[in-house]
Amino acid sequence: MGSDENCIFCKIVKGEISAEKVLEGDSFIAIKDANPVMEEHTLVIPKQHWVTLLDIPNKFGNELLEFTKKVAEKLMDSGVADGFNVVMNNLEVAGQVVKHAHIHLIPRKEGDGIKIVG
Q1: Over its length of 118 residues, how does the chain's per-residue pLDDT go in tens digits?
Q2: Is the Cα torsion angle 81, 85, 90, 93 positive or negative in sign?
Q3: Cβ neighbours of residue 3 closer than 8 Å, sequence gap 6 or more
Q4: Separation of alpha carbons 31 and 23, rounded Å
Q5: What domains appear along the chain, each with residue ranges and CATH number?
Q6: Are 55 and 100 in contact (CB under 8 A)?
């Protein structure tokens, strides 16, 4: 799919907009969320412009899972999290604001007061 010239995440991937990178791989990057719900809230973003999980080709599935796990391990190893949520909003009705597929890794601490449907 390539990129979308109007997409903020595509601009971050191309280096046109700065973001605090947590980890970078061949097909995915992880950045700190600009509007975090918790300290170290991180986004895993495909480098290609895909809108939802359904658009990401299956051949990237294992790479996405492995990359997401590496980012989660970094959060856990840093001591900022005792656990974490993995959240992906797909399409506007589900709360997707940026129309570029991305996964939220939300660090959790006991008693942090965050409520996520589960």
Answers
A1: 588 899 999 999 999 999 999 999 999 999 999 999 999 999 999 999 999 999 999 999 999 999 999 999 999 999 999 999 999 999 999 999 999 999 999 999 999 988 877 6
A2: negative
A3: 10, 13, 14, 48, 49
A4: 7
A5: 8-108 (3.30.428.10)
A6: no
> Phi then psi for 92, rounded to 5 degrees?
-55, -40
Q: Which of 41, 49, 102, 104 is catalytic?
A: 102
Q: Detail the DSSP E strand segments found in 1-118.
A: 21-24, 28-32, 42-46, 83-87, 103-108
Q: pTM score, two decimals?
A: 0.94
Question: If you search the block for the tokens 């658009």, which residue do you land on?
Answer: 55
> Which 8-state DSSP code applies to residue 40?
T
CB 46, CB 60: distance < 8 Å: yes
Q: Pick the closest to residue 95 from 63, 52, 34 (CA basis).
A: 52
Whether 7 contacts 99, CB under 8 Å: yes
- 102 tagged catalytic: yes
